[in-house]
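cron nightly-structures :: item 1 of 1
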Amino acid sequence: MDAERPALAERDGFRECTKNGYLVSSMAERNVTVLLVTHDLREAVFLADTVYVMSSRPGRIVRRCEVGIPRPRDLEVSYTQQFQDVVHELRQLIGGRH
């Protein structure tokens, strides 16, 4: 999946939460692995067990970050210190550009 237009997610948070909730439940029901490309750090931490940080051109993986937040996750987890710490770590890795 590719989040080509992150501005759409910002404009319609409810739709994004619904999509992410559907994705999380589908992953759990089907026991599948999903590769999600996103520019939204909070979305990455909420959905992933592992986040890969890429460099700009040429795009190369520069860091692998284990999220370490137990499943199942609901939106309340995004208010926890552990969640915020992972987002902050990722933000530092990309140079604070998010």
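cron nightly-structures :: done
The chain has one domain: 6-93.
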